[in-house]
Design goal:
This protein is α+β, with helices and mostly antiparallel strands. It contains five helices and twelve strands. A twelve-stranded mixed sheet has the order 7-8-9-10-11-1-2-3-4-5-6-12.
């Protein structure tokens, strides 16, 4: 009986915290809508497939990016800042730092948000608009690209911002489908420059760009965590 009572109390406590967090998120989300040219951004990406659920957090300031997710109990952090791409495991405190390609560095000058650019990427590959649809309360246009790799569908806001709301990817080779929802888009945040630098305690293996290309072409592992968002390292 005592165990059951404490279990109920704990459950209520967790529920209260969850409700408080949701209310706080709603209050922040009620800030003025993003506008083109905003220099700081935040979003969460909720991805799910047969393999399970993954949550990724994105922050950006100008061309700088910080992304965090958890893979197999490891907190994988990716930072892109200036001429360096960092990927490290915040749990084991080690990672890899790679000099970015001149092409990737030059793209920073365009002032584009470094993440959530699915609309531009898909349309440049020939995606076609197929319909309008409401998703999570947002008026969206749906675009589709079908090729030898499979099928990619994108729900993007109809305003000038073209923020991705949902991405569904079907791969022909595995016959698997993965869905990603982008939620809690925020802009105009005050973010310190130091947030886009790795912690001083992280131990890095450092590579120039040519060494990275040489090792990646042979399939040799690079660092203790996956190298993600490679367009920011190699260039689009």
């Amino acid at each position: 009986m005592l165990v059951r009572t404490w279990t109920r109390i704990a459950a209520v406590g967790i529920a209260d915290v969850a409700i408080a967090l949701l209310c706080a998120a709603a209050a922040f989300a009620a800030d003025p809508a993003p506008s083109p040219g905003s220099s700081t951004w935040f979003s969460q990406a909720l991805s799910h497939s047969d393999a399970g659920l993954n949550v990724t957090y994105f922050w950006s300031k100008g061309a700088r990016l910080r992304a965090e997710t958890v893979i197999a109990g490891r907190r994988v952090t990716t930072i892109v800042s200036g001429n360096t791409y960092y990927a490290y495991d915040a749990v084991s405190q080690n990672g890899v730092a790679v000099v970015r390609s001149p092409k990737a560095i030059a793209a920073d000058a365009r002032g584009e948000r470094p993440f959530g650019r699915e609309f531009e990427n898909l349309v440049s590959q020939g995606a076609e608009r197929i319909r309008d649809e409401q998703v999570m309360g947002r008026a969206c246009e749906v675009f589709r690209l079908t090729d030898q790799l499979g099928r990619r569908e994108l729900w993007v806001t109809k305003d000038k911002l073209r923020l991705p709301v949902r991405v569904v990817i079907y791969r022909r080779d595995t016959q698997k489908t993965a869905t990603t929802d982008f939620v809690n888009w925020l802009t105009g945040l005050s973010i310190a420059d130091a947030f886009f630098e790795p912690e001083s305690s992280i131990k890095f293996e450092r590579l120039d760009f040519e060494s990275y290309i040489r090792r990646s072409s042979t399939g040799e592992p690079i660092g203790p965590v996956p190298v993600l968002y490679t367009d920011l390292l190699v260039g689009r």
